[in-house]
Each structure stands twice: as C-alpha cells, then as structure tokens.
Amino acid sequence: MTTQWLIPLDGSEQALRALDFAVQEASARMDKPQLLALHVASPLSSNITRFIDQATVDDYHREEGDKVLQPAREKLVASGLVYSSHLLVGEVAPTIAEFAASKGCQMIVMGARGTGSAMGALLGSISARVIHLSQRAVLLVH
User: Fold this and answer.
1) Which end of the chain has fewer CB within 10 Å, C or N?
2) Cα(13)–Cα(141) distance, integer angstroms
3) Burial class of residue 35 in the structure, from the number of CB atoms within 10 Å of its CB (0-12 exposed, 13-18 middle, 19+ buried)
C-alpha cells in the first residue's frame, strides 16, 4: 500500500512552506509517499448564489482553486514525486479531515496559520480544528 500525505493549501506562504517541507521529507525517504495537494474553497454565500447559476459558481471555485494549486503543482512536478491535486468546496477543517480519512492518508502536513480571518491568523484556527477533527497525524509547519 502506498503511503499518502495530504498537504492542504490556501495560497498562504505558510502553506507553501508546509509543501516545501513535505517535498523535502518525502524526497529523502527510501519509500517515497504520494503527496495529495488539496485546496478547500469555502462555499459562496446564498446572497450571491441565488443570483447566478451553479455552472458559474463551479467555474468560479475552479478558477480560484487553480490559482492556489498552480504554484504547488509546479513545485511537485519539479520534485519528481508522485502527486495528485484536488479541489473541494465546503467547511475547510472538516473537509480536510474527511478527505484525509477517505483517501487513507497517513499524515496531514499543513501550515500552522493560513489566510483566514485576523483572529484565525493569530490562533491558527483551521489547523487547530483539523488536529481536533482528524484521526490522522497532523504535522504543523511554522
């Protein structure tokens, strides 16, 4: 069975540092893990979605997700490691924990703080919630 590490990405410098750390650690191993890059987009408010069709909403999430995932894809291609990239829409922390469980990831490698609210940046609320919700090992990169 292939070892898999999940790297949640939100476009922040901390998330890219976590990706760099995961690439470095994975590259040094004899049995290299597959890296799963994940961006979880928050759903748009119903105040917005009631005025536009679902295809437009999906296109928006895909375009915004690609902006976040593209720098990660470039780093992963350059590393030569086996990887996949994923885009989901939902509440961020539970979606990360559920995705890691559904894919059988052995570890989640993520930035200690991301691009959330000012309070979230101070407390690392997403990472703290992932630690609380996940049954997987969570490694935080500062």
Assistant:
1) N
2) 11
3) buried
Strands (DSSP E) along the chain, which ranges? Answer: 4-8, 34-41, 83-89, 107-111, 137-141
Residue 27, domain extent: 4-141
pLDDT in tens, 119-141: 444 446 899 999 999 999 999 99
Closest CA to 39 of 7, 2, 71: 7
Q: Round the average pLDDT of the chain to a whole number and report it.
A: 92
| Total tally of structural domains belonging to the chain | 1
pLDDT tens for 18-51 read 999 999 999 999 999 999 999 999 999 988 888 8
Instruction: Tell me the sheet residues that pair with 111.
Output: 141
CATH label of the domain that carries residue 80: 3.40.50.620
Question: Could you identify the residue written with the tokens 């559920």?
Answer: 98
Dist CA 54 CA 20 (whole Å): 35
CB 94 within 8 A of CB 133: yes
For residue 53, give every residue at least 6 positions away whose Cβ sits within 8 Å of its Cβ, in sequence order, or none: none
- Averaged pLDDT, 107-113: 93
